[in-house]
């Protein structure tokens, strides 16, 4: 986190610029993020939400000049053949096209943008590439989630004969760049990530 000494003001009370990256897969992640963003703004901070989710999920709940929405697709979830069936291979291929092949371009763009807004902290739910971008930009990052994409997609890789298995390694490497992981309720396989914190305990 970029925190500089400020005469008469403690670092913990300083106005901060948060960047919150939110996966656009479904509304669950976005609706969870709304409450976190709302409280950050109420505390007097600016929050830039970067997501592929619709704007209204955030703007209908938060009306504030401190909220900024940037529409960018940096990951994708499962491709479903129907309401109950996941097309595993199609999911892997879509992610490869969305975030693996253009990865270097994504990193360069995000590093430049994070520096341009003078971001103090990057928060992710739970876009892996931005943890690496934050690290390369010299900014600390935190993941707030109940699962990581490598856990979900590892089963897809095994079911499709190890197609695109490098994607899972890339995700794990990305997540390892974050400073902390705050695991929210009903978390799955997150203890391997740095600075693991049980988010439920933060409410006690």
What does this structure look like?
This protein is α/β, with parallel strands linked by helices and 204 residues long. The chain has a single domain, classed as 3-Layer(aba) Sandwich (Rossmann fold). It is globular.
What's the CATH C level?
A: Alpha Beta
- Helix tally equals 7
Assign the structural class, choosing from mainly alpha, mainly beta, alpha/beta, alpha+beta, or little secondary structure.
Answer: alpha/beta
**Estimated share of beta-strand residues:** 15-25%
The H/E string reads EHEHEHHEHEHHEE
Number of strands: 7
* Backbone shape: globular
Note the topology:
Layout: E1 17-22, H1 28-42, E2 46-51, H2 56-59, E3 67-71, H3 88-100, H4 103-116, E4 121-125, H5 129-136, E5 141-145, H6 149-159, H7 165-175, E6 180-183, E7 196-198
Parallel strand pairs: 1-2, 1-4, 2-3, 4-5, 5-6, 6-7
Helix pairs in contact: 3-6, 4-5, 5-7, 6-7
């Amino acid at each position: 986190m970029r925190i500089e000494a400020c005469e008469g003001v403690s670092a913990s009370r300083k106005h901060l610029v948060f960047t919150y990256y939110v996966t656009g897969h479904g509304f669950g992640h976005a609706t969870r993020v709304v409450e976190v963003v709302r409280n950050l703004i109420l505390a007097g901070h600016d929050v830039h939400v970067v997501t592929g989710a619709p704007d209204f999920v955030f703007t209908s709940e938060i009306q504030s000049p401190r909220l900024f929405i940037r529409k960018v697709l940096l990951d994708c979830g499962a491709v479903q053949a129907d309401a109950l069936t996941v097309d595993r291979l199609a999911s892997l291929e879509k992610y490869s096209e969305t975030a693996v092949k253009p990865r270097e371009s994504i990193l360069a763009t995000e590093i430049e943008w994070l520096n341009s807004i003078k971001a103090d902290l990057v928060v992710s739910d739970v876009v892996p590439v931005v943890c690496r971008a934050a690290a390369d930009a010299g900014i600390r990052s935190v993941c707030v989630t109940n699962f990581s994409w490598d856990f979900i997609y590892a089963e897809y890789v095994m079911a499709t004969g190890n197609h695109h298995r490098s994607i899972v390694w890339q995700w794990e490497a990305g997540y390892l760049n974050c400073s902390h992981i705050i695991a929210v309720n009903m978390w799955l396989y997150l203890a391997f990530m740095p600075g693991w914190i049980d988010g439920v305990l933060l409410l006690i």
